[in-house]
Here is the input.
Amino acid sequence: MELQPWLQSLIGGLIIGSAAALLLLGSGRIAGISGVVGNVIEGHSGPGYWRLWFLAGLLLPAIAWRLSGHGIPGTLSLSFPLAIGAGLLVGFGTRLGNGCTSGHGLCGLGNRSQRSLVAVAIFFGVAALTVFVVRHLLPSAVGVAA
Here is the structure.
C-alpha cells in the first residue's frame, strides 16, 4: 500500500510525538536525541540502560524494514566525504544550539521553552534560506531546475 507523502509525514509525526510524550510521562526524561546520543558516547547510559534501549528502538525498526527487502524512501546518493562533512556540520550545529530539532522542536516547544522557540525559529529560517539559495541562486551549480 502506497501512502501519500503528507499522510506518511502525519503518521511519522504522530509516532515521534507519542514516543516523546510517553518517555516524558513514563520517566520524566526528555527525548532529545542529541542529548541521548551524547550521553551514550560519554559512557552514561542511565539506570537500566534506558538510553541504549531508546536508541535501539530508533534503529531496529529501520534495520528490520531494510532486511525485509523494503527500500528506504527519500534516500540520497552522496559521496562518502560529503556525507561525513554533512554529519559533522549537523553535529557541530547541534552542540552550538544546545540540542537538536527533536529536543527543541518536540520536547522544548511542548514544555514552552523560550530557548527552544528561538532555536526552532532559527532552524526554519536557515532551512528556508538554504532552499532559496539552492533553488534560485545556485541552480546550475547543483543541478536543480529553477
Remarks:
- Residues 114-137 form the longest helix (24 residues).
- Helices lie at 5-27, 33-41, 50-67, 80-96, 101-110, 114-137, 139-142.
- The chain has two domains: 1-69, 80-146.
